[in-house]
Design a protein that fits this description.
Rossmann fold, alpha/beta, Histone, subunit A, 10% strand, 2 domains
Amino acid sequence: MSPKHLISIIGPTAVGKTSLAIAISRHFKAPILSADSRQFYKEMTIGTAVPTPAELATAPHHFIQHKSIHESYNVGDFEKEAISFLTDHFQKHDIAILVGGSGLYTDAVCHGLDHFPNVKSEIRNQLNEQYQSLGLKSLQEELAQVDPHSLKTLDLNNPVRVIRALEVYKASGKPFSSFQNRSRPSRPFNVHTIGIEAERDVLYERINKRVDLMVEMGLEEEALSLLPFKNLNALNTVGYKELFSFFEGQISLAEAIEDIKKNSRRFAKRQGTWNRKKSDVIWVPYTEAKEKSLHYLEASLP
């Protein structure tokens, strides 16, 4: 049997991952699997920068708007579904493409997940209630007491990640960090990771322009339609939570848009921190991403 290859495309938001994935897909006639945890939900389109209908028609995409915000769906579910898809695909084909800005979801497919204890729903519900009533800071302070090591590795501005670390501790009595980096399953395919990079000023300008375009496309109206569901985890997302604050009279529309830009830039910075920890990444400049990536892949794939 010929070797199988998964091409993983990483990089910060707005750097051009979708365009590169489509170019590689067309070149190798390979499907694209989205690992963007915000693009899974069919109710969220503009604010998650889902590929346009024209882009979706240009190359086969999977795991795009295949779930509802009302469904329970996490990284473990995604790993199982993605690996099942790849297992079937690789029976007849040799290449597939993984693309997305959610580092944990990408790593889950490429390398497998750490195994954590089961958590009772009562624990999760209690922590979610704590978050709603006392805010994220209270969760951060509690995590600092029980698992200070996780403060160095987790995205502390993401309540889902903080709650996850605390619920693992409460369920097992052991810190979240103690379950990380244990032996993981081997994958029956080779992973080729391509990272797209851009200078910070350039990237931030691209992010700002993308947000302006989202607003022109109707982001405010989309967010307003989702306001009744603002407490769902799926909607604790940049681009929506800022507008929810506007709808509730906490800030002006101009402030909300500026906050979206600011939080998107911060998100890009966290993505960069996550990705820079990876080894065996072929980094390409955004201005030459297609040419350099195809050159590398043509030389690397049999």
